[in-house]
Amino acid sequence: MIKQRLLEVENLHTYFYLDNGVLKAINGISFGLEKGETFALVGESGCGKSLTANSIMGLVPTPGKVVEGRILLEGEDLLQKSKKEMRQVRGSRIAMVFQEPMTALNPVFTIGWQIVETLKYHQKDMTQAQARERAIELLDLLRIPLPRQRFREYPHQLSGGMRQRVVIAIALACNPDLLICDEPTTALDVTVQAQILDLLGELQDELGMSIIMITHNLGVVSEMADRVGIMYAGKIVEQRATRELFTNPHHPYTEALLNSVPQIVEGAEEHELYQIRGMVPNLLKEHQGCLFAPRCDYAKRICFSVVPKEKEVGGGKVVCHRYDEEVDFDALSS
Amino acid sequence: MLKYTTERILQSVLVLVGVTLITFILLNVVPGDPVLIMLDKRADQLTIDRVRHELGLDRPLPVQYIDFIKNAVQGDLGTSYFKNRPVTELLTNAFKSTAKLGLLTLSFSLPLSITMGILAAVFRGKIIDRIIMFLAMLFMSIPGIWLAMVLQLFMGVRLRILPISGNATLQHYILPVIVLAIGYAGGASRLIRNNIIDSLGQDYVTTARSKGVPEFFVVIQHVLKNAAIPVVTLIGIQLRSALGGAMIIETIFSQHGLGKLAIDAINSRDLPLIQGNVVYTAVVFVVINLIVDLVYGLLDPRVRLVEGDS
Amino acid sequence: MNLFTSKQKLYAEMGVADVIKDTGLYKDAWRRLKKSPPALIALGFIVFIVLLALFGPYIVPHDPNYTDISNMLRPPSSTHWFGTDQLGRDIFSRVIVGTRISLFIGVVAELIALTLGVVIGSIAGFFGGWVDKVISRLIEILSSFPLLLFALAIMMILGPGIMNIFIAIGLLGWTNVARLIRGQVMRLKTSEYVLAGRAAGQGEMKIIFKHVIPNCMSTIIVILTMDIPSMIMTETFFSFIGMGVRPPHASWGKMLAESRMHMRAAPTYSIFSGLLLMLTVLAFNTFGDALRDALDPRLKNK
Question: In a mutagenesis test of the C interface, which of B8, B131, B141, B289 is the best target, namely the one with the most C β-carbons within 10 Å?
Answer without folding.
Answer: B141
